[in-house]
Amino acid sequence: IFLALVGPAWCFLLNGFSFLAVIWALLRMQVQDAKPAPRIGSAVAQLREGVGYIWNDRIVRTLFAMVAVSNIFAIGYTALLPAFARDVLETGPTGFGLMGAAIGVGALTGALTVATLGSSARKGILLTAGNLLLPVMVLAFAASRVFPLSLLILFFAGLGFMTMNTTANTLIQTSVPDHLRGRVMGAYAMIFFGFFPFSSLMAGFIAEHFSIPLGAAFGGAVALTFALFWIWRAPHIRKLV
Fold first, then answer.
1. What is the value of pTM for the model shown?
2. What is the pLDDT of residues 35-67, one digit of tens each?
3. Cα separation of 192 and 202, whole Å?
4. CA–CA gap between residue 113 and residue 190 (Å, rounded)
5. Which tens digit of pLDDT belongs to each residue from 79-109?
6. Does 38 reside within a domain?
7. Total structural domains within the chain
């Protein structure tokens, strides 16, 4: 809505101001000082140790793979939202803004769901549900030509994405030894943020050479295939608490 009313520059400015709340929350946090672990070996040896832990721990390896697939394939559709708004759903800037808002509200709902149920429900169930919900919603969004229905689908896509990633983040952090947590979470952040451009590139390439809906549907189909594979081949993930 703001995009249509005031243009993109003001939207970026408002988004920048929104980070003031995050900065305030961080400043208010009271964190106990932790004694740093002594460094053993060179930086290369420590990096090798962190990567080795990720690869050799079956649970952590699977969680990393889930996050990687999600960020390489499933979320490429977000880069195509402007094209969907203009050429597929024909809703213009206002529709584009509403689609982004629907994803955001869904993501917030997913985060609150994990915070509410994370201690009482099996985290593995939440993880599996989110990992399955996201690609299904991406496929549904690619097929939808009704704008209100597309908004509802995007809400659940955001919910699935945040539920899966928040739960995976929590499970990784709570299962990794203290002296390796920094290295492991650094690798997690690299996958979480670093793979998205490849997802956008792939979705954009398919959209340009074939069709916009296919650009979203392809990534959703690949992600759904992997989600079903993990349900079949990694039942231990569903049992995580």
1. 0.87
2. 666 666 677 888 888 889 999 999 999 999 999
3. 16
4. 25
5. 999 999 999 999 988 898 899 999 999 999 9
6. no
7. 2
Residue 109 domain boundaries: 43-238
Instruction: Give CA–CA dist 10/156, Å, rounded.
Output: 28
Contact call for residues 73 and 138 (beta carbons, < 8 A): no
Same domain, yes or no, for 101 and 64? yes
Shortest CA distance to 210 belongs to which of 199, 221, 202? 202
pLDDT bin (cut points 50, 70, 90) of residue 162 is: very high
Q: Are 186 and 43 in contact (CB under 8 A)?
A: no
What does the alpha-carbon distance between residue 175 and residue 172 come to, in Å, rounded to a whole number? 5
Of the candidates 194, 191, 202, the one whose C-alpha atom is nearest the C-alpha of residue 78 is 202
The token pair at 4 is 């249509």
- Percent of the chain past pLDDT 90, that is, above it, reads 54
Q: Which pair of tokens denotes residue 129? A: 């549900």
Report the share of the chain in percent with pLDDT over 70. Answer: 93
d(CA 134, CA 152): 13
